[in-house]
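User: What would this chain look like folded?
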Amino acid sequence: MKVLDAAALRQGLAASTGERIEQLDVFETIGSTSTYLMEQAAPSSGKLHVAIAGQQTAGRGRHNRSWSSPPGAGLYESLAYGVASSREDFSALTLALGVGTLDALERCGFEGIQLKWPNDVVARDGKLVGILAETKMRDGRLIVVAGIGINVNMDEETRAASASGWAHRGICLADLGEPPTLTELGIALTDAIAETFVRFESEGFAAFAERWRAADWLRGRTVTVESPAASYKGIASGVDDAGGLVLKTTDGEQAVTSGSVSVEDVPVDSSQ
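Assistant: Here's the prediction, encoded as structure tokens.
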């Protein structure tokens, strides 16, 4: 797998994306692209600071879980966005970022990809992409840092390390077809996520809800959600207009706005 080509990446971006980027940093290796951006000066409102790497030595997911990212295994990208105006449905931004990632993968020729609430991208019942959105205030302005890790190639050790409470094993783009170069993937992802930020700020989750529901991997599955408030068990029944996970429980429908999901009935893909 070739390393990222910084010049080709910059040249390949859509003109509209290039206009929104104040700074683009490309690394062969970094501790964490998200941690790096959280430590940098904030971008202006409506603008982006982007960091992309081919390896992370201290990658992390939700709840500070580690993200296995050895050389050649994936693409690791974070985008810091200066929010011009917040929204009531701001908590659904992570779901919109999932749709943006789906768009990027489709631009690279991958179909049949699904979304798992709230922040994972799934293929063949395995975790393909992890997304982590974090916020910070800087000079009275809200900044969002979206970190996205895409599995591109995986050896068995990396695959085993990526196992979770809901997926039997990790999966990568090479399992699904000929993967793009990291540069091609970085171009597609940067364009798609830049569009996502701008569209979400203007239209909110309503602009992404139909697409998200069509790709909903959890729908119809029996799940348990561990949230800060309580633990819920039921059948996943889609998402509401604010991006909350709707569960059919013994006490009726319950909308959960945050939490970690475990799945009882994930089938084993015998083709893997």
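The first strand starts at residue 21 and ends at 27. If you want, I can go into more detail on any region.
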